[in-house]
Amino acid sequence: MSSGESRTGGDASGRSHAAGLAHRVPDLGALELLLAVARLGSLGGAARELGISQPAASSRVRSMERQLGVALVDRSPRGSRLTDAGALVTDWARRIVEAAEAFDAGAQALRDRRDSRLRVAASMTIAEYLLPGWLVALRAQRPDTAVSLHAGNSAVVAQRLLADEADLGFVEGVSVPAGLDSAVIAHDRLIVVTAPTHPWARRRRPLAARELAETPLILREKGSGTRQVLDAALGGLARPLIEVSSTTAVKAAAVGGAGPAVLSELALGEELAMRRLVRVPLDGVSLARDLRAVWPTGHRPAGPARHLLSLTRAQPRT
């Protein structure tokens, strides 16, 4: 056999050995029981310390002895004594349990570091009108978690998640960005609004979808969820009258009389109530949309991100 073949055979043997290790080595619970028997000199005392019944402890010791092929404990009316083999196995077991404790401490440190911060990326409407309430609720339940929020359009949210610059995202577009999984957390609708002085504010008939599509509007920038939904619903848009990068800026331009706009109903409560803006009925098209939480495909939210996601589902959906 060549040296190359020998190495290949050795590798295969090593993989086989590793694959069978879990079947030949007792689990941590059995090793902890053996250590307790050695320390207390009593199988019954060890069972009580570990919170199991004495028959269960006896069964676990017998199973361990069958697994290893040697006797570990001598039982008598005066108590339980380790055999010579049992004493040797106990020394090995102590090192394994100490290593497992170190492993557990390290894993807990990783969880603590993860739980100490939460990075959220959200599209503008969700960041401005929904997330503040969710984050207040999260703060009440996890006061030690530091939260950072980056607000941007849906495309930016996806970029931050895929670059591992955010732990959880929220978007409002027509589809889930590539590379992300999602869950619907709320529903929203877009509505057409104008200043009270605009001719559309005095319309007696609903605005036709075609007329809306052909009218220059005050719009969010490309990549925003609002613009994606509107463009998809109307099959295209006229050249923007004004293009801005925030919902607040769109509202300000519309209130100032620059022209009509299409915005989330979530963002317009105060303006409509004070009649700074007027809702224009629309016919022939639905501008309803889903609001989604998103995260990288195959990586379910954990720790604070999972907690925040549960809070969004606990709130009444719009």
From TrEMBL:
Q: What superkingdom heads the lineage? A: Bacteria
Q: Which InterPro entries match?
A: LysR_HTH_N, LysR_subst-bd, WH-like_DNA-bd_sf, WH_DNA-bd_sf
Mind telling me which Pfam families this protein's record contains? HTH_1, LysR_substrate
What keywords would UniProt list here?
DNA-binding, Transcription, Transcription regulation
Q: Which residue range or ranges hold the HTH lysR-type domain?
A: 26-83
Please indicate if the UniProt record lists rRNA-binding as a keyword. Answer: no
Q: Which GO terms describe its molecular function?
A: DNA-binding transcription factor activity; transcription cis-regulatory region binding
Q: Return the similarity comment.
A: Belongs to the LysR transcriptional regulatory family.
Identification of the protein by name: Transcriptional regulator
Q: Which organism is it from?
A: Streptomyces griseoviridis
